[in-house]
Amino acid sequence: MQHILGQVRRCVEDYHMIEAGDKVAVGVSGGKDSLLTLTALARLRDFYPIPFQVEAITLETGMPGMDFSPVADYCAQLDVPYTRISVPVYDIVFNERKEKNPCSLCAKLRRGSLHAAAEELDCNKVALGHHLDDAVETFYMNLWREGRIGCFSPVTYLSQRDLTLIRPMLLATEYEVQCAVREA
Questions:
Q1: Distances (CA, A) of 75 to 28, 72, 96, 167
Q2: Which residues pair with 125 in a beta bridge?
Q3: What's the pLDDT score for residue 141?
Q4: Average confidence score pLDDT of the chain
Q5: Does the N terminus or the C terminus of the chain have fewer Cβ atoms within 10 A?
Q6: DSSP for 101-161?
Q7: Alpha carbon of 33 to those of 127, 141, 165, 174: distances in Å?
Q8: Could you tell me the CA-to-CA distances from 50 to 10, 20, 123, 126 in Å, in that order?
Q9: Count of CB atoms situated within 10 Å of the CB of 163
């Protein structure tokens, strides 16, 4: 975890991800990447010289069998406010539209819902759990499928929403994430 915290701090500083007074929403799916991002930012908040706030947001998409009460308990342990928002993504994608390839539409609906929730909570930044392996994979997918060189940026300003996306885990590999989660 100390290694991950060092990487997150370096990423935050190198890319100027967090400024004094920022309120950072972390999109928490319950998976290892988002929970580690939340943990790292909550711990960084406690000692970082620049004061900022952290909020956790989970989108309850209507997927059957999902229980986020352990996430709520974990957020309480971290002293992070936790908001759960019900959005009808599952119904739209599978029942109304009956998508054969649902990933793109599902991602678009979740992304829009997360951004809207962050705005409602007066967050000016949204932290996503993308790590180095995700960046490399995105680079190669763009190259092979679209014939272009490109990847997501560590910091992306969304002018239409006046919201900034940050990826503080970008220097950590998948293996390092797995190790930190196992250790925690």
A1: 10, 5, 34, 20
A2: 24, 164
A3: 81
A4: 87
A5: C
A6: S-HHHHHHHHHHHHHHHHHHTT-SEEE----HHHHHHHHHHIIIIIS------SEEEETTT
A7: 11, 20, 16, 9
A8: 14, 5, 16, 17
A9: 19
